[in-house]
Design brief:
Largest sheet: 8 strands, mixed
Shape: elongated
Distance between the termini: 30 Å
Bound molecules: manganese (II) ion, zinc ion
Structural class: alpha/beta
Radius of gyration: 24 Å
Strand order of the largest sheet: 9-10-12-11-15-19-16-17
């Protein structure tokens, strides 16, 4: 991981060093361990807090430089609002608020993980640590010169003081693996497309072998033998050959049906012959956000040794307009045998997913498949950038995704499917065409995918609005958000993992 940030846990009794971070509620009350850490300065600090505009609202912060009577150089008071009402995601955001306040010059930081009502639980302390790491992440690998206001990646040693440091450390271990997975997904999305093309992406996914993940890479010859004509039709216009990567984590019972996650990995999408306008085309380096999420998720599950069998599959291509590129009017035959008339070569993500979904459904017979794809601009018209679009042929799976969406803050909103939409992609020349009409564009895209899932319980997440360029949040200031890793990790751990 690129950040030099270190986060660990110490007991309350450890002396506060460097920059001190404490919490108060919206009555501006501090807990007892906090008052103790403030020592003789407690009364002065409380007076300063009371005299300021600071109201202790959850996530707000007050900065006091060189507070008299305190050995630390800087004191940051973070508002926790009404501590009893804090949910897991709110605590994660408090961690984010801390990382938002500490700067490059704060090399040593002590956080007193106590709310006015009492010490934080080990899980809450772990969430503070996760929130700090998520918010602190910054992608600046390609900046050779850094300006002053261009605060570089945090370089701090953060000690989180808790009642039971060993318990907090234990609680943080799996969460830390998930944070690593989110950061891995963000890295992949942020990387430029001349660096991250299908073969390089496949190589990075293969690094998961170190964690015990089985990784199989299908090259063009292998995909040709499998008759993946829909995916290959997209990739034929690029100098970079396509790849499909199948990752398998066997943490569950031997022979138990796996769960499966499938990602769209269009490393760059020009639109192909149906070329896109040039404004913002550079954003299309993020058209592999679904695949990035699947790789980050596999990392998280393997690193925390999830007790479940999982298949992760990603289709990696580059959609380019060269002399060998596919044309509107072409008819391709997918691995399923169904034929597809190409109407618009910019509707390529569904062509890639069609073959990968079919492959996973046939070959791995999963309990369910969830695919993630930066699939349509239409989903942003419908939902903006705060919810991913959810489409599913299974109410239970849709309900579960909705629940974990709320608990993780990676929200989804269910959209409809139905035969009236499905018939819009019937073609006069082939079994189907790759686009419907302008209206309901994210729905007809989902209908297309559904034709390739067989009878497998399935959900499709259209993450075009959430995977990249989404508004900065309390726990993310990176262009690539890593959306979906925490969501799907929670789906697995809540509903599909064997209990110890
Ligand atoms: Mn496209
Ligand atoms: Zn695309």
């Amino acid at each position: 991981m690129p950040d030099a940030l270190k986060v660990g846990f110490v007991p309350f009794s450890a002396a506060a060093r460097g920059t001190l971070v404490v919490f108060c509620d919206d009555a501006l009350k501090f807990g007892s361990a906090t008052s103790k850490a403030l020592g003789v300065a407690a009364a002065t600090v409380k007076r300063a807090v009371a005299a300021s505009q600071f109201k202790g609202k959850s996530g707000s912060a007050l900065d006091l430089l060189a507070p008299e009577g305190l050995k630390v150089g800087r004191l940051i008071v973070i508002g926790a609002g009404k501590p009893a009402a804090l949910k897991d995601y709110d605590v994660l955001k408090l961690g984010g608020a801390i990382a938002g306040k500490i700067g490059a010059s704060d090399t040593t930081v002590t956080v007193i993980a106590e709310l006015p009502g009492g010490a934080m639980t080990p899980d809450q302390a772990a969430a503070i640590a996760s929130g700090i790491r998520l918010r602190a992440y910054k992608f600046d690998r390609y900046k050779t010169k850094k300006k002053d206001d261009d605060a570089s990646s945090l370089n701090a040693n953060v000690s989180i003081a808790v009642a039971d440091a060993a318990a907090a450390k234990k609680a943080f271990a799996p969460d830390n693996a998930v944070v690593d997975g989110v950061i891995m997904a963000r890295e992949l999305v942020n990387e430029p497309p001349n660096v991250l093309y299908p073969e390089e992406f496949a190589k990075r996914a293969a690094q998961l072998k170190k964690l015990g993940v089985e990784v199989q890479i299908l090259d063009v010859a292998a995909m040709t033998r499998l008759k993946m004509g829909a995916l290959l039709g997209v990739s034929q216009g690029s100098a970079h050959p396509g790849r499909t990567v199948i990752m398998r984590w066997n943490g569950g019972k031997k022979g138990e049906q796996p769960v499966a996650f499938v990602g769209k990995g269009v490393c760059f999408d020009t639109g192909g012959i149906s070329i896109k306008p040039s404004a913002s085309m550079e954003d299309m380096k993020g058209d592999m956000g679904g695949a990035a999420c699947v790789v980050g998720l596999m990392h998280a599950l393997a690193a925390r040794k999830a007790k479940v069998n999982v298949v992760g599959a990603i289709g990696l291509v580059e959609n380019m307009p060269d002399g060998n590129a596919q044309r509107p009017g072409d008819i391709v035959t997918s691995m399923s045998g169904q034929t597809i008339e190409i109407i618009n070569t910019d509707a390529e993500g569904r062509l890639v997913l069609a073959d990968v979904l079919w492959y996973v459904a046939q070959k791995h017979k999963p309990k369910f498949m969830v695919d993630l794809a930066t699939l349509t601009g239409a989903i942003m018209v419908a939902l903006g950038t705060d919810h991913a679009g959810l489409f599913s042929n299974n109410d239970e799976l849709a309900q579960r995704l909705t629940e974990v969406g709320l608990s993780t803050g990676e929200k989804v909103w269910r959209m409809p499917l139905g035969p009236e939409y499905d018939k819009q992609i019937d073609s006069q020349f082939a079994d189907m065409k790759n686009t419907g009409s302008r209206n309901g564009g994210s729905i007809t895209a989902a209908q297309f995918l559904q034709r390739f899932v067989d009878n497998t319980p399935w959900a499709h997440l259209d993450i075009a609005g959430t995977a990249m360029g989404a508004p900065k949040s309390d726990i993310n200031h990176s262009w690539g958000s890593g959306y979906g890793v925490r969501l799907l990790n929670a789906l697995v751990s809540e509903y599909y993992e064997a209990r110890k």
